[in-house]
Description:
By secondary structure, this protein is α+β, with helices and mostly antiparallel strands. It has helices at about 5-20, 25-30, 35-40, 120-125, 130-135, and strands at about 70-75, 80, 85, 90, 100, 105-110. It is globular and about 50 Å long. The model has no long low-confidence stretch (mean pLDDT about 95).
Amino acid sequence: MTYLEWFEEQGNRHAKVMEKLxxxxxxxxxxxxxxxxxxxxxxxFCPLYKENKKCHDYEELNCYLCACPNFRFDDNGxxxxxxxxxxxxxxxxxxxxxxxxxxxxxxxxxxxxxxPHKEKYIKKNFNxxxxxxxxxxxxxx
Length: 141
């Protein structure tokens, strides 16, 4: 699956959940997206939910921003770096981020970063339209 395919599918999943919550306040929406609630009420939102597994080792994990607004990708490649193609990177160069480096590719590894999963960050960047929050992520536009 390409980044773009995942991005569009996740945005559509998010929109379906948000449709159920259209009459809820911002705080109620954010609360609904807490990991424990999502596992129980939205088991198809994330493949890890079926195993009750978190993508990040963080007790208060919130899944509202399943993907990070600071992530940047281009399925065609962004640039060459040491004879490898860079496909994704962190827009804020998080100290907790890392890279997957292969023979001819580089991808951002966000597994050590919890920035978008903190409720304070979500509230600061909240938008009922996930694609609006994520408007800088897709560099192929």
